Amino acid sequence: MFLTSREQKLIQTFLKRGKLTIAEMMEITDTSRRTLYRDLNNLQKSLPENLSLENTDEGYFLKGDINQLT
């Protein structure tokens, strides 16, 4: 699984905080909304099979076996 530095930052923050909003992720990665959505799409494709990136009204979160990331 190859991740960019921005994707790695997002994963680390998801593991620490759980859910993140688009605004929070834009601040964390210092990117535009469009770039962030592109990164999220690439991140979803890079995640292991039993792990997914889910979106709710409250924000995005990792769903599945997060132990695969550690």
From TrEMBL:
Top-rank taxon, per record: Bacteria
Record-linked Gene3D superfamilies: Winged helix-like DNA-binding domain superfamily/Winged helix DNA-binding domain (1.10.10.10)
Domain Helix-turn-helix type: 6-47
Pfam families named in the record: HTH_11
Name of this chain's protein: Helix-turn-helix type 11 domain-containing protein
